[in-house]
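Thread: "does anyone have the structure for this chain?"

Original post by V.I.:
We have the sequence but no experimental structure in hand. Need at least a predicted one for the grant figures.
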Amino acid sequence: MMENIIIHAPALLVAIPLFSAFITPLLSRLHHRVRDAFVIIVLAVTEILAILLAQHIYAQGIMTYVFGADIPSLTTEIPIRIVFEVDGMSIFMVLISFTIALVAAVYSASFFKKEDGLDRYYTLLLLMTAGMVGMELTGDMFNFFVFLEITSIASCALIAFWIDRERSLEAAFKYIVISAIGALFVLMAVGFLYGQYDALNIAMLAKNIQFTFVDKVALVLLLAALAMKAGIAPMHMWLPDAYGEAPPSVTIAIVATTQASLYGVLRVCFTLYGKGIEINMATIGWLLVGLGLLTIFIGVTMALIQKSFTRAIAYAAVGEVGYMIIGIGTGLAAGLQD
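Reply from O.Q.:
Generated one for you, tokens below.
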């Protein structure tokens, strides 16, 4: 029993919150406490499942889950199907995502008392959770784009939850514009890579990539898109508004989506383009270090002049993103992708 659960855990980590999102509005008709408890239980169960999977991954190594296969966890070659690739880094990010989502749900249950539309709020929270976990588990570039879109749309709606506040709507509008541009860049990059190699599987692309001019254009598009989503300067303008104007519980959850985008930067640099023998990834690394320093400078200096405490915290969060980007850039500059 437990072995079967572990085998199908990668799919369950996305499927459980995804299907629960559509059950939540029905439970709201019974009682709001039933709905709140259901959401918290769903996220707690998936967190426990993620912990069990993490123990398996750290003990047994990388796990590949192939949708539609007779034995999803067994593969002899790169499959031409939808694939989840679970390794130490991805499961670590999944644990962070579920932990933050669970904290947001628990806080929401106590923070929101007589707000309208809480059934839709919890639906969007679960959809956002499913989206960012899918981003962290998928081994396919097109599915990465799909999960990125699910995360973006749900996050935008959550930011605009207080629709009677003009600034919340403005913050949501900025977020959806940045997300739409980023999604377009990702889709273009996926199209370029598919046109070059007739494949969308990340492992197959990493194995066959030739580092042509088109591949380098795809790299720039992917990094630009994920930098927008992660709030890296000078593309950080949405983050202070989103963090500062959204409900506090939403701000907690959006932090996880930012981390998922940073995870995307890691995957692109160290996995997809990790064998960059014909492209100077050290240059990309130093560029990321420079962007990280700029992000820290803007975040810290802008935080000092804010009169609103929430916006000061939001700009401080921008600075924290800069520290993470410096870590990624340093790894590339040191040649750790080899």
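V.I.: this helps a lot. The two ends are 39 Å apart (CA to CA).
O.Q.: and Residues 166-197 form the longest helix (32 residues).
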